């Protein structure tokens, strides 16, 4: 009973704690990687949670100063295709809020409602220098930071389901951007992008063929346009039956108008070309996710001005969609002028640090170092409409800063300080560190009574 009371008191304290205010701070003497350039012996000045200046000037008098001589300073890492704060254990379905199986709610599924600011994944990700994340709904073709899909996707075929709506849906739902700052107000923006599988995964959704999916996809967009033109008729019941619910139809209006990007999971080069064709024909703003064979059509992707979320260490022909997968994919896409963002590995909710390791691997296979830094910081912000707001050390951007012990792409380097919106974040609240410290002897060499042996 006493333990229950203590836990209740702690919970109440956490719920009523005042937010930590940003401090004015100058970080001096470091090698500064701004996301777009490198400044030796640089100074990063932050006021009211935002970067005021980045250069070589001395810190203003009277301001708190962090001496970072011999260190490297970078923007916080931005995780893309992430499941942070929405999935705890991949094998426990009840902890995964990344997917929805109701055929009456597909495109309208909003992942932001499942975000948990107390998630164990967030403090651990901060230890890898991650300060923002694009949380993306999960589907049968998902990769990157998603949990494993246990929804029976492989058994799905297209058709009229409950209520006459298509089952399963062509769309997986809408992504959201979160901050990894300590506290409860972590949602930055919901509905930043729509998601949909193509290639083999999309073909299975549509009934078994790629051609079928493209035809069905185009017909679905036509239904959205018809609904948009005739909402009054829809309300009166004077329209033919549509394959999507009203919520899904409404959710897709920004997509057909080109205001909301569509994240398309696709890997085979021929499928990429067809997606680019679809985007041209339908006036869609697309983001390619995966693109394992993207290097084969890099010039076409660049000409279409389409960004790519890429897993840079994909190098095995694990299926017929990835026959030409290679470690030089990121370098080739970047060289062609494609805007790329690098992803973490499968299950990266708990291993968000893999993002920077993957960036290091991409550098070892031809991607320039500066391009790799951009691909995990400023590029994700640009891709999702947050250019100049975070992911970059420049005047006006959020004060998301990491002070590294060494090269951030070197596995032995560690963050020595992490600031988000100008607030220094705790680096001792990760569950793994708390468990470690729980079992360690104290300064006197004694263990907690329950753990003596």
TrEMBL record:
All copies of domain Amidohydrolase-related, residue ranges: 323-411
Ribonucleoprotein found in the keyword field: no
Keyword terms of this UniProt record: Signal
Leader peptide range in chain numbering: 1-22
Organism superkingdom: Bacteria
PANTHER family per UniProt: ALPHA-D-RIBOSE 1-METHYLPHOSPHONATE 5-TRIPHOSPHATE DIPHOSPHATASE
Organism ancestry: Bacteria, Pseudomonadati, Pseudomonadota, Alphaproteobacteria, Caulobacterales
Name this polypeptide is given: Amidohydrolase family protein
